[in-house]
Each structure stands twice: as C-alpha cells, then as structure tokens.
Amino acid sequence: xxxxxxxxxxxxxxxxxxxxxxxxxxxxxxxxxxxxxxxxxxxxxxxxxxxxxxxxxxxxxxxxxxxxxxxxxxxxxxxxxxxxxxxxxxxxxxxxxxxxxxxxxxxxxxxxxxxxxxxxxxxxxxxxxxxxxxxxxxxxxxxxxxxxxxxxxxxxxxxxxxxxxxxxxxxxxxxxxxxxxxxxxxxxxxxxxxxxxxxxxxxxxxxxxxxxxxxxxxxxxxxxxxxxxxxxxxxxxxxxxxxxxxxxxxxxxxxxxxxxxxxxxxxxxxxxxxxxxxxxxxxxxxxxxxxxxxxxxxxxxxxxxxxxxxxxxxxxxxxxxxxxxxxxxxxxxxxxxxxxxxxxxxxxxxxxxxxxxxxxxxxxxxxxxxxxxxxxxxxxxxxxxxxxxxxxxxxxxxxxxxxxxxxxxxxxxxxxxxxxxxxxxxxxxxxx
Length: 432
Ligand code: HSE
Hints:
By secondary structure, this protein is an alpha/beta fold. It has helices at about 15-25, 25-35, 65-70, 85-95, 105-120, 140-145, 160-170, 175-185, 195, 200-215, 235-240, 305-320, 365-375, 405-415; strands at about 5-10, 35-45, 60, 75-80, 100, 125, 150-155, 225, 245-255, 260-270, 280-290, 290-300, 340, 350-360, 380-385, 390-400, 400, 425-430.
C-alpha cells in the first residue's frame, strides 16, 4: 500500500494547526484512511520564529521548489494567503500534477474559475473546504450531501470578527473599537481588519459558496458589499426594542431566474436560528428544494478548526489517490441554474433607517413626503427624546421597497438641511 506525501507551504497559524494534527493524529488518521500521511516538507520564508509545534529541521525549507518540484509529493497545501505568490504556487503545483489544498478565500474569489480549469486540465484536484466558514464542512455538504438539491437561498454569518463585535456590542455594551481589539487579540481578525469590518472577507466567502450553490461564476464585482462600521449602540437598541438583532449576513438568493448576492448588516428576528449565532461562531442557513431549511454552525476561524477542514481535504484526496472513491465531482459545476446575477437597483428588501435630524416641527413630514414620492411605505417610526446637541435620532422601518427607489429617496432626504449626518441603513430580509 502506498502512503500519501504532503508538502505544506506557509508555516503560520493554520499551517501550525495542520502540522500539529498530522503529527499528533498520525495513527488515528492511518486507521481511517488505510495509509499513512507523511509530512515530507514544510516551506516558509521565516524559519526562525518559534512555533507552537515542533518540526524535524530536515523537512523545513524556504524554497518553494523543494515542494513544487519534488516528485515524491502528492499533495501541496497552500497556506500563505495573499494573491500573487499564492496563485503562482498553486498554478505551478497543478501543472506539476500535484493535488492542491488551499484556505485562500481572497484568491479563490477572484481566480476560482481559471484555477479549477487548470486543475481539471491536469487531472488533479483543487480543494478548498477551509476557505469558507473555517471548520464547518459546508463545501462538502454542498458538493456531496446536498448534491440532489437545488438551493433557493443561503444566509451566512461567515465573518467571526464582525459577529464577535456585534455580539459584544449587543450583549455587553462593549464599544466597537474595544470589541475589534479583542477580536484581533483572539486571532480571528485578518491582518488588515478593514477586510473584516468592511465586509470584504464575507464577500470573498460568498463568491465561493454562491458559485458552488448556483452554478454560476460569482465574482467580487457582482456583490453589493457593506460592512458594519456605521452600526451604533443606538441602532442595536432600536433593533432590540422592535424584536431584532443586527448581524452581518452574506446573502445569495434566487429570485426568479436571477441571483442576488450581497453582504450587509441585516435585522434578524430574535427567534430566527441565525439570531442565536454569537461571538466568533459562523453559521450558514440554507433553503433547498429537497431538504428545506438547514443550519450549519461552528467555528469559522482559528488554527485548529481551520486545520480540521484542511485535514478533511487531505483525507478526501488521499482516498481518491488510493482508488477508494470512484468518482470525484468537479469543484464547481457551472450549469447556471440561474440565468444571471441581479443588479443592486433591482433588490427588494425592507429598510431600517436611522436619520439624525434637527428637532423642529415639520422634519418628519419632509422625510415622509420624499418617501411617499418614491412610493416607499413606512411600517413604523420612533423618535427618542431630545439630546444635548439638539439633534434627534428618527428611526423608521419601511415595508418592502425597490433598492433604486430607496437609494434615490435617501439621497434626497440626506440632502435636506434638517438632516445632519449620513443616515444609517440596515436591511431586513422578508424571508427570515
Ligand atoms: N477574519 C476571518 C473571520 C477569519 O473573522 O472570520 C476566517 O476566515
């Protein structure tokens, strides 16, 4: 029986978790696979820093070619992140007929179509379970467990940093900045936390799982992206008084023959399963034609949970190398069960709007006149007591409206002299 030889490129946080699992669970994995997984080489630019796992010096290298051109290596695991160097490494590995595993969501969100094509042309696999929701096996569920299903909608909490910040603000009254610092200390946040709080990391993951679920190539530029930086304590407490929590959702939903893809803060009814997803946890709430509603929940970041996903890809590829699984499915089947991706102007949602206005007669009338001009109907309104600086928050919830009408109305309202700050908008999903 042949063994499986693995080379890891990137000895950082996730790399450490994968190496630790491969070393500590060697016998456990051998029993499950029927072959040993040998860690042949580990490559990193920095071989001096202390790591949490001990590796035999002889397998360490700072030359990627020791892995890419090593004829013994079956599987290359790319864990360096970033775009250019990671892409070159993956392409070279695939051209050299090596299977590849990556956790690189940013790279896949841009280059997935060409990279999967490269893998197919070389008759090897490119696996990416760790790129979405860390340890939660959502890619495998979509590709295999739900293979007979057509997906109607997916609502994902896929950024642990944002979910942690919003949970801390909601449950403990922690300030946005303190909660972000905490998330950075705990190691969930990206190197540049703007990637998290401005919604980009969620959009990277959405581009991947939406393509997989709807058989169409969703690119970053197709996604409407809004982060959580405008959400204040006030918004959280208004939402609370109306029975909602605020979460950053990555949404992909089929509307007729079109697909809507967007990332933005969303009001979630407190009784909805997604409302109970707190802290750095991730969750994906699906609706499919056969299973109906389903919730996948677990840790979406961190060294050990992410390593769990990488090791599951190693085992899957190893099984196919060993001939234990007769068929491997294409990574993404582009069979377009939607015709196209919807333009932002055609979205329909409800809106929570937080205006900051001068407190004087007629302000509310001015706002509602503009809304009615654009046929936007108000569901309820609240105005809290006057504040020191004589500015008052006016908070409204609309009924369902079209995005283009809404954004034109909002532009007009925000230009009124009585409105003193850019209004905060949080969408509310009719289906949740
Ligand atoms: N920064 C990401 C998060 C890490 O907060 O979820 C996992 O992709």
